Amino acid sequence: PDRRRGAATPERGLRLVAEALADAPGETSLLYLGYGLGAQGTHPDYAPMMRALLRGRTAFHCIDLTQADWHSLEGPLRITAEATGGLYVSTYRFPETAVAVVARAISGHYEISFERPALPPGRHDVKVRLRTRRGVVHHRTTYSD
């Protein structure tokens, strides 16, 4: 209860949710309906939130409710979604389509596993692309061990 009372920013609240999801088996998805997060790298709660999402294997899917083509808090939403294997969509132009896209993304998935490459422990970039099919692969952009 004390930690919940201190969650006065979206980043702190998302961190608490991600930490709670960390004990769930397998991958988890978090659907965020909102308008922004603090500036990446400058907001003190952003990095701990991102670490908790990655540690908890939580894909951050964002439905941005802002009524504008672009806004200054959009970048961290996009970066968070991409880094965690989630999806970012805006409801400004086509709200029904935005919701449908996220619904399809979280309704089913394939799990890709791979043997850990012979690299030193640490953080490594991950790139996945389709070779014989057209489409988009949503995945975490880094791997840490």
Write the layout of secondary structure elements.
Elements: H1 2-5, H2 10-21, E1 28-34, H3 46-55, E2 58-64, H4 74-83, E3 88-90, H5 95-107, E4 123-125, E5 142-144
Parallel strand pairs: 1-2, 2-3
Antiparallel strand pairs: 4-5
Helix pairs in contact: 2-3
Task: Write out key terms for the chains shown.
145 residues; three-stranded parallel beta sheet; 5 helices; globular
What does this structure look like?
This protein is of the alpha/beta class and 145 residues long. It has helices at residues 2-5, 10-21, 46-55, 74-83, 95-107, and strands at residues 28-34, 58-64, 88-90, 123-125, 142-144. It is 34% helix and 16% strand. The strands form 2 sheets. A 3-stranded parallel beta sheet has the order 1-2-3, sandwiched between helices. The protein has a two-stranded antiparallel ribbon with strand order 4-5. The longest helix has 13 residues, at 95-107. It is globular and about 40 Å long. The relative contact order is 0.14.
Beta fraction of the residues? Answer: 15-25%
Report the count of strand segments: 5
Count of alpha and pi helical runs = 5
Q: Describe the sheet with the most strands.
A: 3 strands, parallel
What pattern of helices and strands is seen along the backbone? Answer: HHEHEHEHEE
Amino- and carboxy-terminal Cα gap: 31 Å
Helices and strands: which structural class? Answer: alpha/beta
Oligomeric state, counting identical vs distinct chains: single chain
As residue ranges, the low-confidence spans are none
Strand order of the largest sheet: 1-2-3
Helix coverage percent: 25-40%
* Chain-averaged pLDDT: 86
